[in-house]
Amino acid sequence: MTAIDERMTRFFEDLEVPEGCKAELIRGEIVMMAGPDMAHNLIVESIVDQVPRIRWHRLQTQDVAFPADASEPQPDLVVIERGAVKGPGRLVPAPAVTLVVEVVSKTSVLRDYRTKRELYAEGAVPVYLIVDPIKGLCVLLTEPTPAGASGLPDYVAERTTKFGEPVPLDLLGVVLDTSEFRTYS
């Protein structure tokens, strides 16, 4: 990490985000966005309800650490196995994360489909689920690799399903029911 990245990280840690907004540090840039839509929140709630609490922590406001990339995204949902992280802290190290979920908004399309896809693959997050209420689709990405076909970090396996179709989250032992997922109005 460069000196500029370190200064930006310190600045980000001290940033006071206005109520109703969310901020992320993505590749050295601070990205601020408005709070989510109700459809977005209901999708996240549905996923949380389907991931068994007995084995998994299902965290909705958790920053994830990617120190080599000057990134501290806050996915819409972070799933980590119980016992994978010891002690308190604002950041969960990327290697401890099993699943990240991003619910696409009109302003996050490029970030969710491209920037975060590369970031999560580079951080070796085993499962990245993109839920897109604009298109009514779920994109399940697995098998991260440091250099995909484009030479950039990517996921080897990609499975796209429509809302209403099941999404197998094999690593979690869950088949996600998406019948309650709704598109934006």
What does this structure look like?
- This protein has helices at 3-14, 38-50, 109-122; strands spanning 21-26, 29-34, 56-59, 63-65, 77-81, 91-93, 97-103, 127-132, 137-145, 154-162, 167-169, 174-176.
- The protein is an alpha+beta fold and 185 residues long.
- The chain has one domain (36-176): tt1808, chain A (Alpha-Beta Complex), CATH 3.90.1570.10.
- The strands form 4 sheets. It has a 6-stranded mixed sheet.
- A hairpin with a 4-residue loop joins strand 11 (167-169) and strand 12 (174-176).
- It is globular, with a radius of gyration of 16 Å.
- Keywords: Endonuclease, Hydrolase, Nuclease.
- This is Uma2 family endonuclease.
- InterPro entries: Nuclease_put_TT1808, Restrct_endonuc-II-like, Uma2.
- One of its GO terms (molecular function) is endonuclease activity.
